[in-house]
Amino acid sequence: LTPEEFRRLGHRYVDWVADHRAGIDDLPVRDDVVPGSVRSRFGPEASDGAQPLDALLPLVDDVVASADTRWQHPGFHAFFPANASLTSLLGEILSTGLGAQGMLWSTSPACTEVEQAVTDQLARALGLPEAFTHDGGGGGVIQDSASSAALVALLAALHRRSAATGGPAWRETGVTGTERVYVTAETHSSLAKSARVAGLGERGLRTVPFSPGTRTMDPAALADMLRADTADGLTPVLVCPTVGTTGTGAVDPVRDVARVARPHGAWVHVDAAWAGIAALCPEHRHLVDGVGLADSFCTNAHKWMLTAFDASLMWVRDARSLPAALSITPVFLRDKASDSGAVVDYRDWQVPLGRRFRALKLWAVLHGHGLDGLREHVRGHVRMAADLAERVRTHPGLELAAPPSLGLVCLRTTEGDDATRVLLEHVNASGRALLSHTEIDGRYVIRVAFGSLGTTDRHVDELWALLSGS
Ligand code: PLP
User: Fold this and answer.
1) Interface pTM (ipTM) of the complex?
2) Which residue from 4, 66, 229, 406 has the fewest beta carbons nearer than 10 Å?
C-alpha cells in the first residue's frame, strides 16, 4: 500500500468507524451468536492472491459487525467497561503509523520519553507521591494489562527479597517454595495467576480474612499471618491491597496494610486497576491514601480513562527495582545510551522485549480531554451509580448486595438467587443493556458497572425499566 493509496482507503476506513460509533446506540449491546458461526465463514486456507482493501469493509460488516459484543455501547455496564474513545484512536493511528518499537531508549527515544513524561504527569494528576515519578527516583511504565503489572511487581519482589536476605539469589535459583503472597478472597485472579507463573503455585497464595462486617483486608489478621508465617520459616514476599475490587468495588486500607507489611520486607503492590483513575478527582483522592508507603501502584487507563485497550499504568517507587529483577542483556542489545545509565530502557520494566508506542494515545487523551474532561467522565458515572442505588433502595423487590462504590452497584432481588439470575438474563436478552454477575457470601449478585462512553441518564432510565419491571 503506498501512502497515497493509504490516504484514500484511510478515509473510507475512518468513515466506517465513525458510522459504527454514530449508530451504535441503535444496535443491541450483544448479538446472539452461535459458537463457531464466525469461524465457519472462513475457508481453511488464506488466499494466495491479494484482494482489494475496499472489498474488506463489506466483509467486516457481514462477518464481524453482526457477531459482536459492543463494548463501546452506552448500554454496556458489564464487567468493568473499557473505554476506547475516538480521541485515543487518533493517538493509536499515529502510533501504528510511526511503527516504532521502543524496547530500548535508542530504538525510539520519543517512545520512551513521551511515556516517561505522561506517566509523570499522570502520577501528579492522581496525587501519587513524587517518589513515584521518573523525576523523583521511581517512575511509571505502561504495561499491556494490570495482570502483567502484578506479575512484574511479584518478580521485583522476589528479587528484592532474596537480595536482602543474602540467601540463594532468586535470579539464579528461582523460588525456594517458602515464598508467600498475601491477598483476600476479593483480590483479582490475576494475582493467583502471577503466583502460578512465578512458580509459587497455589500454596504460595495466602488469603487474609476480611475485617469484620466488610469485604476488605483486615490489617490485624494480616499482621498475625505474617508473624506466624515468618516463625514457620516462610518468606512473605508481596502483599496486594486492592483499591476497588472487581466484585464489589471494596477498598482495602492501603495505609494500614502497608504499615503491617513493610517491617516483614514484603513488597506492597496496590492493585487499583479499575478505581484508581477516579483519584483524578479531588473528591476521590482518598483512594490513593497510603500509596506513599507502597512499592508499586497500578491503574488501567484502558478501563475508565478513555484510552483504548491496552494501556495499564504502573508506577514503582524505585526505578531500579524492575530492571534489577528483569534485565538480561545479550550482546545485540548493548548500546552506548544504555551503558551510560542516563536513559530508561523499558524492555527491563516488562516481560516482553518489544513494545508499542502506547504513550501516544495517552498523550492524545490528555491533550484532547484535559484532566477536567477526564474528571467529568468519571463524575458522570459516579452520579449515575448513586442514582441507581437510590432507586434500588426504595424498590420493594430489589436490594443492594454491597455498598455502592464509585460507578459500581451490586444488587439482587429479594426473592433469592434464581429470581436474580432470571432478572439478569431478562436484562441481557433485551439488547438494551448488558450486565454481569458475581457472588457475595455464596449468593448470586448482579453487577452494574457504569463507565461506558456515551452512557446518559436516559440509559439509566432504560436500565431501571428493565430491572424494576416498570
Ligand atoms: N485487578 C482488578 C481489580 C480488576 O478489576 C481487573 C480487571 O477487571 C484486573 C486486575 C485485571 O485487569 P487486566 O485485564 O488489565 O489484566
Assistant:
1) 0.99
2) 4
